[in-house]
Design a protein that fits this description.
Blueprint: H1 10-17, E1 26-28, E2 31-33, H2 40-61, E3 64-67, E4 71-72, E5 89-92, E6 105-106, E7 111-116, H3 126-132, E8 136-141, E9 147-152, E10 158-160, E11 169-170, E12 176-182, E13 185-190, E14 193-200
Parallel strand pairs: 4-6, 7-8
Antiparallel strand pairs: 1-2, 3-5, 5-7, 8-9, 9-10, 11-12, 12-13, 13-14
């Protein structure tokens, strides 16, 4: 069930901020958004994908992969807590490490990754990422693990990357490919490196 409260009572807000679930809350231009708490399946795919990307992509290239970071715009940096999103993963190439301010990131990472939960706002975040100029957005269904890859087009909107004849969907920005394998799994590999193929999550 979705609900909109025009003005959140102060005692509700205080209770929310003091709870564990507040760590996933986002502010969209001063409006509080409260996503569903990630369940075990959500956490499994996010954590295992982060580990895979660190080992096979980030470390060899001097990049970085972070989980659940506060991502804001250069215009909002001075008051970033009024406008930020929290992707499940953020992928930084070596030339973009400067956007990482430890407590938050400001500007466009190379890739943001969203794990899609029922009735969440995954696709509603796309305009924010497009305005930042994020080259790619990856979306994984938390239950089926089916991947969707999107690249930023000329019209500042995201266009889906089609799967190849063999079922692999490739990321132009990173050289990582994904293919759903069924049984709530997805296989990741680096282009040209069959030995890097790994089924995720690994549990």
């Amino acid at each position: 069930m979705r609900a909109v409260i025009a003005d959140l009572p102060k005692h509700w807000l205080k209770e929310r901020m003091n709870s564990e679930v507040a760590q996933w809350d986002e502010m969209w231009n001063g409006v509080l958004h409260m996503p569903p708490m990630p369940n075990g399946m959500h956490q499994d795919i996010a954590a295992d994908l982060q580990f895979y990307l660190k080992q096979h992509w980030a470390k060899p290239r001097g990049g970085r992969v972070r989980q659940e970071v506060n991502l804001t715009t250069p215009e909002d940096e001075a008051h970033w807590t009024h406008n930020y999103r929290i992707p499940d993963l953020v992928v930084l190439s070596a030339d973009r490490l400067g956007i990482d301010k430890n407590e938050y990131m400001v500007g466009a990472p190379l890739v943001v990754v969203e794990v899609k939960s029922p009735n969440d706002e995954t696709y509603d975040k796309f305009p924010f990422y497009a305005a930042l100029g994020v080259p790619e957005v990856w979306v994984f269904d938390r239950t089926t693990r089916v991947p969707e890859l999107y690249t930023l087009g000329a019209a500042a909107t995201y266009e889906p990357v089609p799967a190849g004849p063999d079922g692999w969907i490739g990321s132009p920005a990173t050289g990582v490919e994904f293919r759903p394998t069924g049984m709530e799994k997805v296989t990741a590999r680096m282009v040209g490196d069959p030995a890097s193929a790994t089924e995720l999550p690994d549990t």
